[in-house]
Design goal:
The chain has 420 residues and is of the alpha/beta class. It is built from 15 helices and 18 strands. Flavin-adenine dinucleotide binds next to α1, β12, β16 and α9.
Length: 420
């Protein structure tokens, strides 16, 4: 029986970031994962500026090392949006960017490599006791915290604080914390690795295509090192059921029949299989903490409902959870009431952003509206610059959440130079 103050279940980006932040705060912990690393995770593999920023806040050397690992990752410089009427809008992450000299704003890296890179950092820290190949199957609430055990009970652990970071299918999250799957706030997606896709953006922009064939939902192409690309489609789960939409068939249909994409994929080779997984979206407000526990990342349903980005939010929630652990230990208070501060902080940094994404997600379900907006945006350089600024500047993003800001923009009363 292992005794610990803090146990983290799940060592994906959420769990690993929590453990690393705790270690930097001088708090030791136990980290447990059922897999043996390197292990794969079905994903689009895009790592946002948010993920990079928070990892650097934990320890600047982590991202410095990651940036030099160019055999693992591709640096990306913007997003190419393609509307149902095939209008392309390129939104760089910075309005005036210099690929050679500017700091990097985002990456694409196969999860098998990215998650293992973080685990290598975990293994360097002596105060993180890491167990892989160890699945936690049972949770027992005790007066002091939680008792956790494997199926055969060969592995048992007593923890005063439990951080649940075991992903989208977390048993604890669903059955203990009561976060039921809600198809309106959940998506399904499939991804595949292809080599030799033609027509990739010269400055390595990721591509999001809002196609008639996959509506509502989107198709993506994200560049990877070595001429590879991560290609996939995603759709909200209620639409998948209602339309009886098969994501794998949808992907294959687009690649073989779409007039532009079929040309780009005519010499492309599929590597491995097309595989799928669920995305618990953060568009519905949920309680993500309780007496002696906190939920981090996908276990807390924290994926952005528009972009499907969950790595950054998993890392961010892990960072906040670690700071909450510090507070709990200092005050010797692990009550549900005290833990609410975690919910409040997560809602403050991610809540509004996810509500904005949810509104845009609903808009994207109307192809005519997307076409109209794409026509308007493509003619308006100021608007494209503003969207770029929103990506890099959280203050601009906050301003953009106010409808008055958009009215002032349309009236030409917003000076972008002053916003910078
Ligand atoms: C098809 C698809 C495309 C996506 N594309 C992107 C993208 O491009 N960018 C992006 O930011 N996000 C993307 N996401 C979302 C992203 O994958 C998740 O949000 C992210 O992995 C969440 O990290 P996490 O640490 O919370 O969970 P996970 O990465 O799922 O890690 C959970 C860990 O818990 C372990 N575990 C599970 N059960 C147990 C147990 N019982 N005991 C012990 N350990 C356990 C697992 O082995 C795993 O290592 C995508 C998701 C899908 C499905």
């Amino acid at each position: 029986m292992i005794e610990t103050e803090v146990c983290i279940v799940g060592a994906g980006p959420g769990g690993a970031a929590t453990a690393l932040k705790l270690s930097h705060l001088g708090i030791s912990c136990v980290l447990v994962d059922k897999a043996v690393f390197p292990r794969d995770k079905i994903c689009g593999d895009a790592i946002s500026g948010k993920a990079a920023t928070i990892l650097s806040r934990i320890d600047p050397t982590i991202m410095q090392q990651f940036e030099t690992a160019t055999h693992l990752q591709t640096d990306i410089w913007g997003i190419r949006f393609v509307s149902p009427n095939n209008k392309e809008i390129d939104v760089p992450f910075h309005p005036k960017y210099d690929v050679q000299n500017d700091p990097k704003q985002g990456f694409v890296c196969k999860r098998i490599d990215f998650d293992n890179f973080l685990i290598e950092e975990v293994k360097k820290r002596e105060d993180i006791l890491f167990f892989e190949n160890t699945a936690i199957d049972g949770y027992q609430k005790t007066t002091e915290g939680f008792q956790l055990y494997s199926k055969t009970k060969a592995f048992q652990i007593n923890a005063r604080l439990l951080i649940v970071a075991n992903g989208a299918n977390s048993n604890f999250s669903r059955h203990f914390a009561g976060l039921e799957k809600d198809p309106k706030h959940h998506a399904g997606a499939v991804r595949a690795y292809y080599k030799n896709v033609q027509g990739m953006h010269p400055d390595r922009f990721i591509e999001l295509h809002f196609l008639k064939e996959i509506n509502p939902g989107y198709f993506w192409i994200f560049p990877l090192p070595g001429g590879y690309a991560n290609v996939g489609v995603g759709m909200r789960s209620d639409y998948i059921s209602r339309k009886k939409f098969n994501l794998r068939d949808g992907l294959n249909r687009v690649l073989s029949t779409h007039p532009i994409l079929k040309e780009r994929f005519k010499d492309a080779e599929l590597e491995g299989k097309v595989t799928g997984f669920g995305l618990p979206l953060g568009s519905k407000k949920r309680q993500i903490s309780g007496d002696h526990f906190m939920l981090v990342g996908d276990a807390g349903h924290l994926i952005d409902p528009l972009s499907g980005e969950g790595i950054g939010n998993a890392i961010y929630s892990g960072f906040i959870a670690a700071e909450q652990v510090q507070e709990c230990l200092a005050e010797n208070d692990f009550s549900a009431q005290f833990m609410k501060a975690y919910d409040v902080r997560v809602a403050r940094v991610l809540g509004k952003e996810m509500q904005l994404s949810y509104s845009l997600q609903k808009m994207m379900a109307r192809p005519w509206l997307v076409n109209l907006t794409a026509n308007w945006v493509s003619r308006n350089r100021t608007l494209i610059d503003l969207i770029s600024l929103m990506y890099i500047d959280l203050e601009v993003r906050k301003k953009a959440l106010n409808p008055l800001f958009w009215i002032r923009l349309m009236l030409g009363k917003v000076d972008l130079e002053k916003l910078r």
